[in-house]
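Hey all, sorry for the wall of text incoming. These are the two entities for the joint prediction.
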Amino acid sequence: MPQSAEKVLDHAKLFHEPEYQEMFARKREQFECPSSAEAVAAQTEYLKSWDYREKNLAREAVVINPAKACQPLGAVFAAAGFEGTLSVVHGSQGCVSYYRSHLSRHFKEPCSAVSTSMTEDAAVFGGLNNMIDGLANAYKLYQPKMLAVSTTCMAEVIGDDLHAFIETARQKGSVPEDFSVPFAHTPAFVGSHVDGYDVAIKGILEHFWKGKTRVANGKINIIPGFDGYCVGNNRELKRILDEMGVEYTLIQDASDQFDTPSDGEFRMYDGGTKLADVADALNAKATISLQHWCSRKTLDYVAEAGQETASFNYPLGVGATDDLLMKISELSGKAIPASITKERGRLVDAIADSQSYLHGKKYAIFGDPDFVYSMARFVMETGGEPTHCLATNGTTAWAEDMQKLLASSPFGKGCQVWAGKDLWHLRSILFTEPVDMLIGSSYGKFLQKDTGIPLVRLTFPIFDRHHHHRFPVIGYQGGLRVLTSILDKVFDKLDADASTPGKDVSFDLTR
Amino acid sequence: MSRDTENDAAFREKLIEEVLSAYPDKFAKRRRKHLAVSKAPAESADEPERVLSECDVKSNIKSIPGVMTIRGCAYAGSKGVVWGPVKDLLHISHGPVGCGHYSGSQRRNYYNGTTGVDAFVTLHVTSDFQERDIVFGGDKKLEKIVDELEVMFPLSKGITVQSECPVGLIGDDIEAVAKKKAKEINKTIIPVRCEGFRGVSQSLGHHIANDTIRDWVLDKKTVEFESTPYDVNIIGDYNIGGDAWASRRLLEEIGLRVIGMWSGDATLAEMERAPKAKLNLIHCYRSMNYICRHMEEKHGVHWLEYNFFGPSQIAASLRKIAKQFGPEIEANAEKVIAKYQPMVDAILAKYKPRLEGKSVMLYVGGLRPRHVVDAYTDLGMEIVGTGYEFAHNDDYQRTGHYVNAGTLIYDDVTGYELEKFVEKIRPDLVGSGIKEKYPVQKMGIPFRQMHSWDYSGPYHGYDGFAIFARDMDLAINNPVWGLFDPPWKKADQKFLEAAE
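and here's what came out:
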């Protein structure tokens, strides 16, 4: 009997016990009608071949393990960055359960969003009544300051008109006349979560800015973009801006919403950009986005409103942070203080201390377009060689940007950019052209298991490690965290490779 | 707070009124039908259809718009629960990318096999619909996907097509594609019309998936199989954290032969062969009673519900099952129960003193709101509230056998209601899902995820009970719950001011 009160074994150990192993063998042999062990072994080997890779890359229709989610997730995340705001997703309700679970699994935090719960009758007659009732219930029950509406693919396929529906609901008294209900169409069959983020932010700005006259002030708006590390990152960004003395509005700040304290109270709403500040943000001198691919439509709209705009690709690493700070300094007229220059020097110092362990290391990087871009840039700053850069939601325009970046450094030579490819493609690529390290989300753990290439978790979503998002990865301080994460993996690998008793030369105390 | 049952019943009735008052009138009226306090047990304890409350709770009705329902959709019921765990089939999430992305690898349906070679449970295979697929239809793409999957995964035994919302709305004929391509590749292809807008919850997805097993799997091939009088199927166990394995072990130990597992760690062959069994043993009644009824009608395979949560239910179930197979198996069952009794005693000796008298509120899916009740009772704990996400009336009738009078019962409870109930009742433990976990914990109340076992498990069988007991103890008796109030809040004012 494997189980006992003295030592309770859970799944990780229990099923390795002989009772279970024998049972598995019996099941397989007698009942599963499995493929032969030889066939499995042959196919396992074949999966590692160039031949398989070619067939794999030739796929045109099926997508296997894509590293992207759908638009409404981005919209729900976006809404979480505004004061007292509740997401209302118009469409079938299962989707909302998925978004809430997905974000909760990453942040280990509550995620609030409601659905208008459309079913067959709404598919036939349209979802107007669902909108009228949904807004009324959400408003009365959860007492929000704003209800941010987005859609699922169902509502989009049947062509529900959000603007008209919301106005009708307003007339029917679902919400008061002057209550804010911005909206965005976010069909799941267009783009990905980064686009959903973009249109949701644009919808919110339009709601507050439309028909207003802009009276320019000297402030700067900053849009952080879809960021699973917003808790650590936004706080770091605010610290830097305060240090510089810049007057700014962080538009869409979910750092408090996804980091509420445990003190006996559940806060459904916490922090977020004040609605008055969103309205006033029209008057800013400029709006900058920290993630270009999360804000193209928004920045176009902002430019139309008369502001200067600029976008970055997730300011991670030395050069990317330099660029951001100089732009902020230029726009705000505020100098970059000595304290921050010192921080920069400390990051450079750290890279110099560790450079021998990083120089020439080959990396595969996957994730959202902006993350992959900045990560590749930072890797090159440390003397590493990005070898495969993959974004399932990357476009050909993104691939061109990547090529330009890679061409800017000798360390980018020979790197392949994989726009629109998925993680099953990456599996073949890693077997045929291996790298030293993989950087991406928790989904990379399947690649790590199959290929043996160590995974550094540095983006969204992180399901299987805790609290990573609480620490910044942007700015110079964030750079230290990223650097340390990579180095820890390098050293762990060195130790593991020298850990066989009798063959443990190189098991060094000091490195 | 008071644990006096009569007072509690009155208090809980009042609580229901309180939460309803927060809704617009029309919806308060609709929600009222889903909330109840269970009444005193009927005179005869073994009355089979004991009702739960005076009005009985209404269930399997559309959720009201604009609330945080915890429910999922038909796709979640079919792909996420019934079909997804079948390991040697490829499951295409047919439609846009999201559904497969969010549901992928989250339920921990454990399986043995080489992923990507002869097993595919943790792969996310999708047709990733784009705008042009909505406009022109996805059938052509689906055909091509089948061909590509054959190249990528030649050892797969077949394919299921799990329709997402747009597929039904644009009128694709996935059945025709399935028939055509199945002939071409000479493998089973099962089209499943589980679009998320169908029905009111994941429950319809279970039913639809069961119907596709009936229509596209059973009796489709000649099955060569030498049966024995002791052949059974495990039905409605999804092997979360290895649950079905812990159950299978016990059934094998009492001398039965488990010829198929549905659908945790299942292969297509096991499903095809199921009608050859002598008895179907069903754990999650809600998700798979449909196919059991079909096999009974069509193949004469009787079915029996069982419950492997906690030693009292395990023993009762083993005896009930054994009774179907005669004295020899009955004697084996007694031996097995006796064999595990010392382990059970040791677990109870260790954990019961730490858990005795603790109150629990549950809110889960298919069977657990009633099935786990006795596992808690075995540990000396009391259920003060329970409810289902997607139950039907027969589930609530079954629940009556498990709960005490005065228990708060909530169907399709909304986020708002559950929070208020938890806040006012302040149980010692809440068991629900990921979406409920963090709000409850922030209130300072211990929590266990009872869909996923909080990434622990198994919880089924004797091996599982040990883990269950340990997990409830570690949840409730962790020192963190004592750290919520800073000492200066209790002490003098000067600290408070200093902290401001």
